[in-house]
């Protein structure tokens, strides 16, 4: 389960590689011309996607019939007119078309200059073109992109871990429900200790998974840095990667872990209140629904962090794990606000764990038939 | 000593226990008998604080608390083990909950497996064991930490006579070590063989309480075992005889309406006749149990 994402990534890369290799030959284009200099110059300016072994129309047609070739380009130089005819089963790719157009223009122009016997100065004047240049604030663009990437990685991580472990926690607890082994255990230790132990065990598994993902990410990064073809890409986006890592390896990880804890507690409680162990999968449903709701609730606000609802939900346990990291990544929250949200979340976790611990023995041994709401009402009546 | 004083428990409209009181001194065995639903398991659950109850239960003079858990050995009515574990893992896990070291427990596992003649090794998976052997492993888990308070709910159910004898030896050994033991059973022979004290519950109420002799003597010597050449029909004509059961040809059990008629019957049977057996006794525990259950159905 923990290695699942790595296997998925590995499989995707492997399948893509195989698919790309098998498809590349059938996407190639052959270049055929009676003028060898023209053909040579065209091939020289093209860096990929050409089949240079095929030199005749009949060979090209045969290769196309076997689906080994996408098409062939027939270059000719008749009466000072450069011409290219493409024959294929589908349209030329836009990149090839643009490159071919560019080549033909340059070749024809050079040819025209030569025929017109222009001076160098005249040639330079005729070659002058207007200028269009875009001025982008690269730093701001990178920062926005980093925020978006960080946001998606974080909420997706919370969502995946939460969905996976909510079901596991609910089933773990529900499978013990009503069994006599629980009577033996509760004659040996307190229900609270047992519950805390059980939850701690589940959380350590989750922590192990997070650590494995972090180590996996670090290993992948190191591999990319030492890979000749990937290193330039990493270097090009170094600032983006640094910002994303900074956003993830921060207090946001604490929010992620605490969010998983409170959802796991709720899942455990759901598992404990089911009537029988077989209902465990149903027990996890309310927790999953809440998690899914939190996940999707973030979508409309990712570009509107100043919304009042975002501010409120960033302090509400079960939602703060999604919304506060959003605000932290966006830089719209100060340290005090983060601390208050964390304290509220920690207090909610402690109170919730204490309440479940106190009810755990009764729920697991099924020693009375009062419902959750009946117990709650009973508690209120005694307090008032 | 385990002391139970005036405990009562009600589930909605059903009275599960009503004013039940008894003591189990250290080094003694108390048998708790009664029909299904009489309140035996509810009594055990009350002792272990699994349920809330009215009344007082103390162990060694104080209410049972988590500090006492390490001194308790509890065997529930239905057997339940973690079937994915091996015998060793299961025993060590439950012993660790009783604060016994894993190392010491591992050293003693083979000895216990031998004492209960468990068919399997310490590495055998629980799920691979027969039902009887699983039950023996559960008994080992209950006893391995040498509990001072042993609570056994139907410990003999499902055991063949040979294994029942092994369990009896283990219970007597725990008693000799000074443990206070309370167990429930439907097998009156085992109860008679083991118990120092007996309590019978019927619909949550105590209907019998005392030593085996005290309980039996409450019913008088109404059972008369005789071996004679008289026929069953002739024996039935004797004054004060309610019923005659033929045990073997020539061997009879006479149920008397009044124990006082014994000497008259003896005189009648021995007039000019030699009789091999004449023994007037109180009813057996099994008969007492049937009588008490019968009173309820009457």
From TrEMBL, chain B:
One of its GO terms (molecular function) is ATP binding. InterPro entries: AAA+_ATPase, ABC_transporter-like_ATP-bd, ABC_transporter-like_CS, ABC_Transporter_VariousFunc, DrrA1/2-like_C, P-loop_NTPase. PROSITE patterns: ABC_TRANSPORTER_1 (PS00211), ABC_TRANSPORTER_2 (PS50893). Residues 2-228 form the ABC transporter domain. Pfam families: ABC_tran (PF00005), DrrA1-3_C (PF13732). The keyword Transport applies. Keywords: ATP-binding, Nucleotide-binding, Transport. SMART domains: AAA. This is ABC-type uncharacterized transport system, ATPase component. It comes from Levilactobacillus parabrevis ATCC 53295. The lineage of its organism: Bacteria, Bacillati, Bacillota, Bacilli, Lactobacillales.
